[in-house]
Amino acid sequence: MSARLAAWTYGLALFLGFAGTLFADTAAFDLEGPSIEIKVTRNGKVLPISRVANLQPGDRIRIHPRLPPDQSAHYLLVAVFLRGATNPPPSEWFTRMETWKKKYRDEGISVTVPDGAEQALVFLAPETSGDFSTLRSAVRGRPGSFVRAAQDLEQASLDRSRLDTYLTAVREIAQTNPSSVHDRSVVLARSLNIRLDEDCFKKPVDEQASCLTQKSDNLVMNDGHSQSMVGVLTSGQASELIGQLAFTPQAGAGYFSPYIGAIMDMGRILENLHTAQYQYIPALGLAKEDELRLKLNNPPSFHNPKSVILAALPPVRTQEPPPLHPVDPEQAFCLGNKPLVLPVSGAPLAFSTALAHDVVLHIEDGSAKGMDLPATADAKRGGYVVDTRPLSAAKLPPAVNGVLRGAWGFDAFTGPVFKLQSARSVSWTIPAAETTGLVAGREHVFHLHAEAAACVQEVTGKDSQGAEVKVTWKVVKPDQLEVKVPAAGAKPGELTMLVKQTGIRKPDEVKAKVYAETGRLDQFVIVPGSRRGALRGSRLEEVASLELNGIRFLPAASHSQQGGELPLDAPGADATASLNPDGKEVAHVTLKDGRKLEVPATIESPRPKVTLLNKRVQLGAASILSAIHLTNEDELPLDGQISFSLKAEMPKRFPLDGKIEVATGDETFHTTLSIADGGLILQDSGTVVATFNPAKRFGNSAFGPLRFRAVDQRNIAGEWQPLATLVRMPVLESLTCPEDVTEQCVLHGTHLFLLDSIASDPQFIHAVQIPEGFVDSTLNVPRLTEPVLYIKLRDNPAVVNTATIQVSPAKVPQEPRDAIPPQPRGRE
Fold first, then answer.
1. Quick one: average pLDDT of 490-498?
2. Sign, CA torsion 377/381/384/388
3. Separation of alpha carbons 359 and 289, rounded Å
4. What is the pLDDT of residues 588-612, one digit of tens each?
5. What sections of 397-480 are H helices per DSSP?
6. Over the stretch 177-210, which tens digit does the pLDDT of each residue have?
7. What letter does residue 60 receive in the DSSP assignment?
8. Is 530 helix (H, G, I), strand (E, B) or coil?
9. Contact criterion met (CB below 8 Å) for 203 and 211
C-alpha cells in the first residue's frame, strides 16, 4: 500500500509540475514545431490533410516532413496505427522514415491504413541508438495510453482551431470597428460554440475585446459533432483529483472546458510514459492546406531523456456529416442581397477548419440540374456567404428553396434547407381588422402580407398632404412585414406606405385611411337565449349595428344611454340561443360613417334554472295543538316542514356543488340548502328533493311569502320562484260562552297577537279585529252559531282558515250558604 501511495505521490508531483507549466500564460502551445505535408488518397481522390475528417482502411497517406534545410538534429519519423487500448498493434503497423536522408527529404513516405486500425499517430524522435525499437516497444507495451493520447490530441487540436478563429476575429473587429464588438462577438460565439463573459460588455467599448480574449483556455465549450472525449478523464480517486484541478488557477483559468480537459489528460498520460531514453511531449496539429503545423507547449530536449514529439492524425472511423441547421428555420432570405448570408449553427468546425469544403447553395430553378452558387463559411457573419453573381442572368420563381451541399472530408453531405425569395413588384395586403380602427393621434401597427418580405430594403410613409411619415418596420415572417406608424404621423386622411425592395427602383404602395377620433368600444355582453345585449363604451350614438356570429343587433327602438351602455336587440330571443358561453368571441361594430371596428364579446353563461315539480307541507307539534286548520296548501307553519322536488332545466344535470337558496320576500331571512348539508337529496341526475324546516333555519320571527332560486357552482343565482307563505300560528286552548246568548264568548290561548281577525261566520260579518300590540291571553269573540271559528292570521290575512274548538259554558259564581247554627245537646 505504501509503495502505491509513494508512486501516486510521485506521479501527482510530476503532473502538477507539468500542469503548472502547461497552463502558465507563457507556455500555452505557442512554440512553433515542424510542419508535415500530408495528403490522403481514397478511391483515386486526393485531399490535403486540412480537408480530411477521418481515415478509413485502404486510405493511402503520403507523409513528407518539411524540415528546414539547415536542420542539424536528425529526426526519425515513425507513423503508427493503433487498434485499441487492449490490443497492441503488430510490428508491421510501424513505418520509419529517416528524415535526414535525401530520398525521404525529397519524397517522404506513403503508408496505407490497415484493416482494424482505429487511430493513427506520427512520432518525431531524435536519432539515437535503438530509437525505433524503443519507440515501438513503448507503444506496444502501453497501447491504451497512446490510444487515449491520440483521441485527446485530435480533440484538443480541433478545439484549438475554434479558439484561434475566435480570438483572431475578435481582435480584428476591435481594430476595425470597436463599436460592433458586442454584436459581432455574439455571432462569433454562436458559430464557434464559444463561451462569452457577459460582464465584458459592461466595460467601455475599447476594453471589451481585451476582456473577451482573456483566459482563453476556458472559452471552448463541448462540440456535439466531434463528441469530445474529455468529459470523464478516468475513474477512481485520480479522476476526482484531476477534476478538482480543472477548477484551480494552477491547472486552468477557473472553469472546466474541453480544451483544458484534453490537454490535462494528455499531460497525465504522457508524463507516465517517459523512460530513461525518451520522454513524450504532445503537439497540437493545426491543419492548413496540405500542412499539419505542429504547436508545442514545451521546448524539446536533445539530452536524455530526449523529447519525442507526438502528433495525431484524423481517427480511423466512419464519419458523421456535420449537423448544420439554420438559426431560424422559418426565416426567408432575399437572393438579391449582397452579400447573401445564410445563418447556421450546430457544427463549429465548419467555421474553424476546412473539413467542410466545396460547399454550394443548390437552387431548383426549374431545370433538370438546378443551379449551384458557391458558399463560404464565415464565423464573423455567423453563416455561409453565398456568391449570387451567377443569378444575374437567371430567371427564378418568386419563392424557391435552396439547400447547402458540399463535402465533409471525402464524403458528400446535404445541409439545411432555406427559404429564398426574389425581389419583384407585388401587391401588399393588410388584414381588414387593422384598417377599420385607424384613429388619428394614435400609434398603429400594420401587418403587410406578400411573398417578398425578405427582399424589403426600406419602408417609409407619407400623409395625405405628401409630408413624410417616419415609420419603423421589421420582417416577422417570410410573407409578412410589421410596420409601426407613430402617433404623430397618424393624421386624418389617406396614409401611404412605400415599400422598397432590393434591386427594384419603384417602391410598392400600400394605402390606408385614418379617421378622426371616435368613441371607445369596450365590450359587448349578452346572455344566450336573450334578445337584448349591451354594448359598453363611450360615444355610442355613432354605432349603427353590431354583428356577432352572424346575428345582427340593432340599437333598441327606445333606449337611454346611461352608464356608458347601449342596448342592442337581436331579431328574436331564439337567435341567440346557440351562442357558446365558453367561447371567446369578437363582435364587429359598424359605425354610421361606415367604419368597421372589432370589440370583444362576452357571452355570459345562462343563469341556473329549476322547475318546481311537487311539494308537501308537514305540520309541527305546535301547529297541531293550535286547533287551527289551514285551508290553503301554500301556507307553511313556522314550526312545520316543507319537502319539494325540483327539475333541473339549465343545466340539465343538477351539479353536486349546486345549491337552492330559500328566502322571505324581502330577503330579511334567507338560507341555502345543499347536498353537503343534507338539505338536498338527488333523486336522479336532473331531479333533486329539498327539505326545509323554517323554524330551525330562520328562528321564530320569520313570516310572509317564501321563494327559492337555484345557485350554481359559480355562485350565480337564477330567478326567484314562489314556494309557500310562511305563517306563525297561535295556540287556541279553550272557548267559554255564557248562558246569556247576548253575551260574547271568551277565547283562551297563547300568542293570540298572531291573529289578524276572528269571526263566527266565513264572511266575517261578525268579526273581531285584533288590535296592534295585543298581548293578552284571552280574547272576546262573537258568539258562535256553530262550533267553528273563522280565522285570519296576521302573517297571511288574505286567507280564511278555520278552528274547531270545544265550547265550555261559562261558570256562574255561587253565593256562599248561611252557616247552620249549632244545635244544643240534650241532658243525659
1. 81
2. negative
3. 16
4. 998 887 778 889 998 887 878 899 9
5. none
6. 888 888 888 888 888 888 776 666 556 756 655 6
7. E
8. coil
9. yes
The strand order across the sheet containing 480-485 reads 444-449, 480-485, 472-477
Whole-angstrom Cα distance, residue 793 to residue 795? 5
Judge residue 75's burial from the number of C-beta atoms within 10 Å of its C-beta, 0-12 exposed, 13-18 middle, 19 or more buried.
buried
Cβ proximity of 434 and 447 under 8 Å: yes
Q: Report how far residue 160's alpha carbon sits from residue 29's, in angstroms, rounded to the nearest whole number.
A: 10
- Helix axis angle for 143-176 and 131-141, nearest 10°, is 100
Cα–Cα distances (Å) from 95 to 76, 78, 154, 331, 558, in that order, read 10, 5, 21, 53, 107
Contact 436, 425 (CB under 8 A): no
Q: What is the pLDDT of residues 444-469, one digit of tens each?
A: 888 999 888 899 999 998 888 888 88
278-288 vs 306-312, strand pairing mode? parallel
Cell of 729: 300560528
Grid cell listed for 592? 354610421
The label of the residue with cell 509513494 reads 6
**Can you read off the three cell numbers belonging to residue 598?**
372589432
Cell numbers standing for residue 524: 359587448
For the chain, the straight-line distance linking the first and the last C-alpha, in angstroms and rounded, comes to 152
- pLDDT digits over 348-403, tens only? 999 999 999 999 999 987 666 788 999 999 999 999 999 988 887 667 888 899 99
What is the Cα 459 distance to its own chain's centre?
A: 33
Helix (H) or strand (E) holding 622: helix 621-625
Beta bridge partners of 399: 421
pLDDT in tens, 555-590: 988 765 556 889 999 988 788 888 888 767 899 998
Distances (CA, A) of 231 to 144, 155, 234, 243, 698: 18, 12, 9, 10, 77
Q: Is 97 a residue whose pLDDT tops 60?
A: yes
